[in-house]
Amino acid sequence: MKFYNNVLSVFILLLCIAYSCKNKKTKIPNTEKEQWVKLFNGKDLEGWTPKIKGYKYGDNHNNTFTVEEGILKVSYKAYDSFNNTFGHLFYKSPYSNYKFRMDYRFTGEQVAGGRPWAIRNSGIMIHCEDPKNMGLKQNFPVSIEVQLLGGNSIDERSTGNLCTPGTHVVYKDSLVTEHIIKSTSKTYHSDQWVHVEIEVRNDSLIKHFINGKEVLRYTKPHIGGKVDHNQEVWNSKVNQPLKGGYISLQSESHPVEFKNIEIFNLD
């Protein structure tokens, strides 16, 4: 009888240990959540620098990029006409292997002089060239653009599309040289907030997500196509893989707002 009692005691002890280990395992912190880092402090443009066509790097012409009530805004209150002053707000550090996420929404009306295709149009530029090397009158950095579109209450307009200023990608196992590849997202009308996330694996794989759903993926981003500055220099780099670069937010003539801008550096 004593033998069986000892066996039972050992069995109960092992069960307690297993239960304890199981509980400890479930309490392991979510390391991915802990490694998301805020790129926007909600107070000012610290860490971000504008480059607007026709103006030097660092000149925030007409206060295009501003911060109000914790939101980063593209504003045209001081503009009489857009006059093709395409702008980009660059984060200070380049990245290669990461996840990026934020919320955006379009507001108000397009400023006078904006292009028809730029209504409710903005973008996140990734793998950007160094903004310090951009030409004074250069429209867009050589980059991969995650295009952000808002609905016009009439047409279907997917968001999270791909645009390729000075670049090419491989999509569905084929080289694509067209400027735009549409995503599978639905249309988001009015001024609702939309959540966008990008997963970037240097030059191997890039994915776009809208409100938690994957809407586009492609591979092998590389230099290719026409640019509006230093064409000879970029011609010498054709087919060079894009393994990393800067991140920028776009101003294309329609007021837009950004918040909760974060990055998870996978390196």
UniProtKB/TrEMBL annotation:
<dbReference type="Pfam" id="PF06439">
    <property type="entry name" value="3keto-disac_hyd"/>
</dbReference>
<protein>
    <submittedName>
        <fullName>DUF1080 domain-containing protein</fullName>
    </submittedName>
</protein>
<feature type="domain" description="3-keto-alpha-glucoside-1,2-lyase/3-keto-2-hydroxy-glucal hydratase">
    <location>
        <begin position="35"/>
        <end position="263"/>
    </location>
</feature>
<dbReference type="InterPro" id="IPR010496">
    <property type="entry name" value="AL/BT2_dom"/>
</dbReference>
<dbReference type="GO" id="GO:0016787">
    <property type="term" value="F:hydrolase activity"/>
</dbReference>
